[in-house]
Amino acid sequence: MKIIECVPNFSEGRDKQVIARIADAISAVEGVKLLNVDPGVATNRTVMTFAGAPDAITEAAFQAIKTAAGCIDMRRHHGEHPRIGATDVCPLIPVTGVTMEETVQYARDLARRVGEELGIPVYCYEEAAFTDKRKNLAVCRVGEYEGLQAKFKDPEWKPDFGPAEFSDKVATSGLTVIGARDFLIAVNFNLNTTSVRRANAVSFDVREKGRKVITDGKETWQPGTLRHCKAIGWFIKEYGIAQVSMNLTNIQVTPLHVAFDEVCDKAARRGMRVTGTELVGLVPKQALTEAGKYFLQKQQRSLGLPEEEIIRIAIKSMGLDDLGPFDPKTKILEYLLEDETSDKSLCALTCREFALETASESPAPGGGSVAAYMGALGASLGTMVANLSSQKRGWDEKWEYFSRWAEKGQALLAELLHLVDEDTLSYNKVMEAFSLPRYNQAEKSKRTEAIEQATLYAAQVPLTTIKTSLRVYDILEAMIEEGNPNSVTDAGVGVQAILAAVKGGYLNVLINVSGLKDQEKAASLKEEAQKILKLAKERENDLWKKITLKINK
User: Fold this and answer.
1) Disulfide check for 375: which of 261, 335, 416, 427 has CB 3.0–4.6 Å away?
2) Both 132 and 161 in a single domain?
């Protein structure tokens, strides 16, 4: 599935009716999900984020730009943030299944349409720029809206698309900058000062561009310490503080937590302190999980914690809730893009609800899902022992060893929880295939093939369950031998849960391959499952001896 994200910035952050009109124009396009609307009163600017299939996204972006031009008059606009048009900037960002090259073409097609159909001048920036000079958004924005008329007189700044004359219509709409770029994090670091000058000094210390200096009587630029970083200092009356406002344009090179630490260091050198962090718009989950693990590592704590706990550590470490509540469900891109049916998954049920659902008259969830869940419980127990061992008094030098095992455990746990739902879905696919029509020979052939493919998949899911469950034994064995001796029985229960998962998954492989017409494939899957079962029994027997020996010492 191809997914593109769009994060346009509109020059209105105070009039709720105008903001709602633009948001409604986006939401009205089928196939688009409006993920976030983030208005700023002081900046008089609203950042909206939406995602979906490329064609739907470009249509939604066009309608949003059209709506903004119809209800925002740039002649009357004032705000703290630099801006050049009613829709100031409109970047397209590849998320899944789309290359940057494809995204560039989508951006240029959108820019051409905005210029030709709406009569709004457009510059293309970042990867969609036609010249290196226009890659940088800040350069495209030089002079802001007030300098636009003079800018049009310079041939070098003729719009890429749309009119080059400063007509009454252009005077109202301003210019729009459209482009394609990698994921950008917009973030403000809160300082315990009201001084814009001092906030700017910190921003000059860290931003890649740096600051102007005089060397041997010549004016030159002294680079800052962070690559792919743009930053300025400003005062936000709404909060009564100065901030270092930053754009991180390549978070693989300069992650969020690295920028946070660097601003903290440079602020401290100037007698200030970072009191918290304000994220503008959405953030990829990776940015917060990497940050959480970074701060956990500094504390010499296990990194093999649940994702929610790691994100909570990131929030508290960087003060993301300093100016107001920070809800990961509304700020993390992946959470907002999750299928709306995810809350109906088996893994979203409580233990009691899962048991009752299994005990109902419905044939699914059944043994396959329960087998995967037992495997998940085995992985959970092994991971728990690893995390407890990493915190054992007197074992401080071993924390990294146990942390690595806990991380492996979390990864296997996630795979097995996925298989809990996947097994039920595979059963449903088989039922759907059997329900296909068979009124003529073509339909019968199609139905037969669909049943074969669905049955094959239904056999492969429990096979994956037993393969994944077997890998948990490595964690449990390490915990039995090296983990906290007080938790050896927890690991022992995990061993039994894994054996049950493998046996249960094996039974499901057998019943499903019996329905395959391809006997050679059926025999191959059955043989592979038998080998895994034999190995699981051998490992369980060996680990049981080690557990009882340790208990009886």
Assistant:
1) 416
2) yes
Residue where a domain stops, chosen among 308, 336, 364: 336
Its domain, for residue 58, covers 3-180
HSE of 304, CA atoms in CB hemisphere, 13 A: 30
Catalytic site residue from 81, 182, 265, 418: 81
d(CA 480, CA 487): 8
Are 34 and 50 members of one domain? Answer: yes
What residues are paired with 219 via a beta bridge? 214
250 and 385 assigned to the same domain: no
Residues 174 and 192 both lie in one domain: no
CATH of the domain at 119: 3.30.990.10
Mean pLDDT per segment of 10 residues, for the chain of length 553 residues?
A: 91 95 96 91 92 95 98 91 94 89 97 97 96 92 93 93 94 96 92 97 97 88 95 94 94 95 98 96 89 97 96 98 93 77 76 93 91 98 97 94 97 97 94 94 94 96 98 98 96 98 97 94 96 97 95 84
Q: Where are the beta strands (DSSP E) in 41-157?
A: 45-52, 87-96, 122-126
Q: Which of 205, 421, 423, 490 is catalytic?
A: 423
